[in-house]
Specification:
Helix content is 69%, strand content 0%. By secondary structure, the chain is mainly α. The longest helix is centred in the N-terminal third of the chain and has 32 residues. It is elongated.
């Protein structure tokens, strides 16, 4: 093992990778379980802190819960190539502007309504 590398508790250090002996496999499995337990407790502590930090923010709590449950947000954007998506957006805004323009009465109608009745 090189001196500039950190000491890792893996299959090579337990001897299991080289020898294939059951005792080395058992050492490897114990070390693997220790690492997994450390990871688990670290994640538990991390999420406990996150939940405690955001206990009054329900939006953040739901985000944390959804992340833990593996729920993904559905994309609000249409799928497709960039060109197709840009065309869809362009058509949407053209239609939107046309609807707004059609809903505004002509200027002479607005001016007629603004004149005092005699």
């Amino acid at each position: 093992m090189r001196a500039d590398r950190p000491n890792r508790c893996g299959a090579k250090q337990s001897g299991y990778g080289k020898t294939g002996l059951m005792v080395h496999r058992q050492i490897f499995m114990e070390r693997k379980q220790t690492v997994n337990n450390l990871l688990w407790s670290s994640k538990v502590n991390h999420y406990k802190c996150l939940i405690a930090e955001h206990k009054s923010d329900t939006k953040q709590l739901f985000r944390i819960a959804n992340h833990l449950l593996g729920r993904k947000k559905d994309s609000l954007l249409p799928s497709g190539t960039e060109i197709n998506v840009s065309k869809i957006f362009g058509e949407f805004f053209i239609e939107k502007v046309a609807k707004i323009r059609d809903s505004i009465p002509p200027a002479h109608e607005i001016l007629d309504l603004a004149r005092p009745v005699s």
